[in-house]
Design a protein that fits this description.
By secondary structure, the protein is an alpha/beta fold. Among the domains are: about 220-360 and about 460-505, no CATH class; about 365-450. The chain is about 50% helix and about 10% strand. The protein has 20 helices and 9 strands. The chain has helices spanning about 15-50, 65-70, 160-170, 175-185, 195-200, 205-220, 260-265, 280-285, 290-300, 310-315, 325-340, 365-375, 380-405, 410-425, 430-440, 445, 460-475, 485-500, 505-515, 525-530; strands at about 135-140, 145, 225-235, 235-245, 250-255, 275, 305, 350, 360-365. The chain has a 5-stranded mixed sheet, sandwiched between helices. Strands 1-2 form a two-stranded antiparallel sheet. Helix 7 runs parallel beside helix 11. The longest helix has about 35 residues, at about 15-50. The radius of gyration is 31 Å and the shape is globular.
C-alpha cells in the first residue's frame, strides 16, 4: 500500500502552493500507511515467535558508517594466504613434558636427532578438596593458640578458584544458577542452590566500591563519554539501565526512571547531595526559570543540602512548588553537585538525541541522525533521485568529518560548516525530506561538536555495543528479584567491560580479587594512568 503510492512528477513551475500542500498531505498519509504496515508486520513477527518460527529484521542497518569509513583494499603483495599468521604455540607456557619413544626398538648404532615437538592444550577439570587441620595449643598460662586460615578463604568452605569460576561463568558467560548447580554436581562438588546464590551475591562490597570509584574517576579524567539506555526488569516491574562509557571504561546502573534528573543523579557518582553554585544557577537560567525564583535560591544563605528530603523542604521554603519549576531547580542543583564532586566541566556527552542526556557539552550521533533520512519512503522517481543524492552528500560529509578528526585545521572546519549548511538547508522535490533536513539542521552545533573537539566519536556505536551484552543477559535470565542481585548485575557488567577495554583478562581480575593477591591495581587507577586528563 504505502510503497505502491506513486506521485506524478509535477514540474516546479507548475507547483502552486495548493499543489505543494496537497503533495505534503499525500506524503503524510503514505507514511501513516507505512507505519500501519510496520505494525501489522510486527504482529506477524510476534505470532511467528509464538509458533517457534524466526521473525524478520525490523529494518536494514544504515550503511553510513560502513560506506564512509571503508578503507581501500590493500594489495596482497604476492604473499600466500596465512603467511602473516603468528606461531600460536610459541608463546604458550609448557606445564609438562612427555617424551615419547618410537614404538619399534631403536637399532644399535642409531644417532639421536632431537625431538619433534607436538603441543597439546587441555584443561584439568576435577574436584579438589583440601582439609585444613588447624593446630591447637594451650600455653602454660592457659591461653589457647590455634592456626589461622589463609586470607583467600574469606568465602568459607569454597576456594578462590572455584568462586572465581562461578562468578566468571555467571556474569561473563551468562550461565544461569540452576545450570551451574547441575554442573557442580556432575563434577562431584557439594553445593546447594542457596549456597551458590550467596556466593554470587553476598560479600561483594569490594567490587561495588571499585565500580563506584570507576565512574568518579572516569568523569574527572575523560574528555568525552557516550551514553545510552535500554529497558530492564526488576521484581516484575519495568525499569531502565543506563550506560556511560568510552574507549577506556564502561559503567552500568539500573534505575526505575530514565529522566534527566535520573541521569544527573548518576553523574554525581555515588553522592546524594544538592548544591547551589554558579553552574546550577546558569542551568536554571538556560531553562528559563523565572528570575525571582532564581534570585531566591541565589540569595538564600543555605547553598548545600545533604539529601533529597532537605532539598525538597528548601524548595517549599523559597516558594518553588510548581512541578516544572521544581524539576528545573532540581536539575540545576544536581548538576552543581556533580561538578562539585569532580565532574569535568568540559566533558562532552554524545548521545542518540534522547532528551535526558542533553547536559554539559552535548553531541549527537550521526548514525541516528542519518537514520531519519534512511527511513523515508520515496513516492516517485523524483523523490528517489533526491533521496539518493542527499544521502550520498551526507555520506561524503561524514567521511570528511572522520578525516578532520585525524587532521584538524581551521580552514577545513570552515569548509565543513559551510557544507553542512548547504546540505541541510536545500530544497528538494520531496517535501518530507525537506522537513527532515530542516529538523536535522536545528542540531547543527551538536552534530558538529567534533569540529571543536576532534577526539569525540561521531556515533554512539560503543555504547550500543557495550549494552548489547546487558540485553543478552536480560534475555537469558529475565529480570532480577532482589536489590542485591540487581546491584551485582550492574557491578560485574561494568567491571567485565572495563577489563576488556583496558586489555585485562576478566578471569585474572576475578581471581586476583577473590584470592586477595591484589597484583592487579584498582581499575580506577589504571584508567587514570591511561587516559589524559580532560
Amino acid at each position: 500500500m504505502g510503497k505502491g503510492i506513486q506521485l506524478p512528477d509535477i514540474p516546479q513551475d507548475e507547483q502552486t502552493p495548493l499543489v505543494r500542500a496537497l503533495l505534503g498531505v499525500i506524503e503524510q498519509l503514505a507514511e501513516k500507511v507505512q507505519r500501519q504496515e510496520e505494525e501489522i508486520q510486527y504482529l506477524k513477527d510476534e505470532v511467528a515467535v509464538l509458533k517457534g518460527e524466526k521473525k524478520r529484521p525490523k529494518f536494514k542497518p544504515s550503511k553510513l558508517d560502513q560506506e564512509a569509513g571503508k578503507a581501500p583494499a590493500k594489495p596482497s603483495e604476492g604473499l600466500r594466504p596465512g603467511s602473516r599468521k603468528r606461531n600460536k604455540t610459541q608463546q604458550l607456557s609448557i606445564h609438562e613434558d612427555k617424551i615419547v619413544q618410537p614404538s619399534e626398538p631403536v637399532p644399535p648404532g642409531s644417532r639421536f636427532k632431537g625431538y619433534r615437538d607436538f603441543v597439546v592444550q587441555d584443561l584439568l577439570i576435577r574436584a579438589h578438596t583440601t582439609r585444613y587441620r588447624l593446630a591447637r595449643w594451650v600455653t602454660a598460662q592457659g591461653e589457647t593458640l590455634i592456626g589461622q586460615l589463609p586470607a583467600c578463604l574469606a568465602n568459607g568452605h569454597f576456594g578462590p578458584e572455584l568462586v572465581s569460576y562461578l562468578l566468571y561463568q555467571h556474569h561473563h558467560c551468562q550461565v544461569t544458577q540452576p545450570l551451574l548447580v547441575e554442573q557442580l554436581q556432575d563434577w562431584g562438588i557439594e553445593m546447594s542452590a542457596g549456597q551458590l546464590n550467596a556466593l554470587l551475591l553476598e560479600g561483594r562490597a569490594d567490587f561495588h566500591t571499585e565500580k563506584d570509584a570507576l565512574l568518579a574517576t572516569a568523569l574527572a579524567v575523560s574528555s568525552y563519554v557516550t551514553v545510552d539506555d535500554t529497558g530492564t526488569r526488576h521484581q516484575g516491574n519495568n525499569g531502565y539501565v543506563t550506560h556511560i562509557g568510552n574507549d577506556g571504561f564502561a559503567w552500568f546502573q539500573s534505575t526505575r526512571s530514565k529522566s534527566r534528573i535520573n541521569f544527573l543523579e548518576l553523574l554525581r557518582a555515588g553522592h546524594a547531595d544538592y548544591r547551589i553554585n554558579e553552574a546550577a544557577l546558569a542551568s536554571m537560567r538556560h531553562q528559563h526559570l523565572a528570575r525571582p525564583l532564581v534570585d531566591a535560591l541565589r540569595t538564600h544563605p543555605r547553598q548545600h543540602f545533604p539529601d533529597s528530603e532537605q532539598w525538597q523542604a528548601h524548595l517549599e521554603d523559597v516558594g518553588i512548588i510548581a512541578e516544572r519549576h521544581c524539576r528545573i531547580a532540581t536539575e540545576g542543583a544536581l548538576l552543581g553537585s556533580a561538578l562539585d564532586h569532580g565532574l569535568a566541566p568540559a566533558l562532552a556527552i554524545v548521545s542518540d538525541d534522547a532528551g535526558q542526556f542533553d547536559v554539559l557539552r552535548h553531541g549527537l550521533c550521526w548514525v541516528h541522525a542519518e537514520r531519519l533520512v534512511h527511513k523515508l519512503i520515496p513516492l516517485n522517481e523524483g523523490h528517489r533521485e533526491d533521496l539518493a543524492r542527499v544521502r550520498g552528500e551526507i555520506w561524503s560529509l561524514y567521511a570528511d568529518l572522520k578525516h578532520y578528526k585525524e587532521h584538524p585545521s581551521r580552514e577545513h572546519r570552515v569548509q565543513l560548516q559551510a557544507r553542512f549548511d548547504t546540505i541541510f538547508t536545500q530544497k528538494t522535490r520531496f517535501q518530507t525530506l525537506n522537513q527532515t533536513l530542516k529538523r536535522i539542521a536545528r542540531n547543527k552545533s551538536e552534530l558538529l561538536l567534533v569540529l571543536e573537539q576532534p577526539d569525540i566519536p561521531l556515533h554512539t556505536n560503543g555504547s550500543e555495543t557495550d549494552i548489547r551484552d546487558y540485553v543478552k543477559k536480560r534475555k537469558v535470565s529475565g529480570g532480577t528479584r532482589s536489590d542485591l542481585g540487581r546491584q551485582c548485575r550492574d557491578t560485574f557488567a561494568s567491571l567485565k567491560k572495563t577489563c576488556r577495554k583496558l586489555q585485562i583478562s576478566f578471569w585474572d581480575y576475578l581471581y586476583d580479587r577473590i584470592s586477595r593477591t591484589n597484583n592487579i591495581p584498582p581499575l580506577p587507577e589504571i584508567l587514570r594512568q591511561r587516559v589524559s586528563p580532560a
